[in-house]
Design goal:
Distance between the termini: 36 Å
Strand content: 35-45%
InterPro entries: CARDB, Ig-like_fold
Number of helices: 0
CATH topology: Immunoglobulin-like
Number of domains: 1
Pfam family, one: CARDB
Largest sheet: 4 strands, antiparallel
Protein name: CARDB domain-containing protein
CATH class: Mainly Beta
Radius of gyration: 17 Å
Oligomer: single chain
Structural class: mainly beta
Number of strands: 10
């Protein structure tokens, strides 16, 4: 799956619209699943899907989950992801995130180590009422 981007980001030929295909990885947070409580560890577990929508494989990076209400966060390694591939990452926070509502932000490649087609599409917010 190739994504069109402005000429400045392009490697290759351009079409009639002045857009072309970016020949790089492009990581997005594609899904944040509802948190679950793990009574054995006393933690909220949040599973997140990270997808590479770019044309090339993405190298190993890190993703971060932040609770903006408490500033608690968890950083997890993200393995290399082939073009078009998706990986699931499990984050944990040491409390129940619904208090009474939950707002969580997840950022793929939060340390900005992957040279991507679009560096502005790495974050997704989860917001649900408890």
């Amino acid at each position: 799956q190739l994504a069109p981007f402005a000429i400045a980001k392009c490697v290759g030929h351009c079409g009639n619209l002045g857009l072309c295909v970016c020949n790089k990885p492009d990581l997005i947070v594609s899904q944040i699943y509802d948190p679950i409580w793990n009574p054995g560890t006393g933690q909220s577990m949040i599973v997140v899907d990270i997808t590479n929508i770019g044309a090339l494989a993405a190298p190993v990076s890190q993703a971060r989950l932040v609770d903006p209400d408490t500033l608690s966060n968890d950083v997890q390694a993200t393995p290399a992801i082939p073009a078009g591939g998706t990986v699931s990452i499990v984050f944990t926070l040491g409390y129940w995130v619904f208090d009474p509502d939950a707002v969580l932000e997840v950022t793929a490649d939060f340390a900005d180590v992957v040279d991507e087609c679009n560096e502005n599409n790495n974050t997704m917010t989860y917001a649900e009422q408890g």
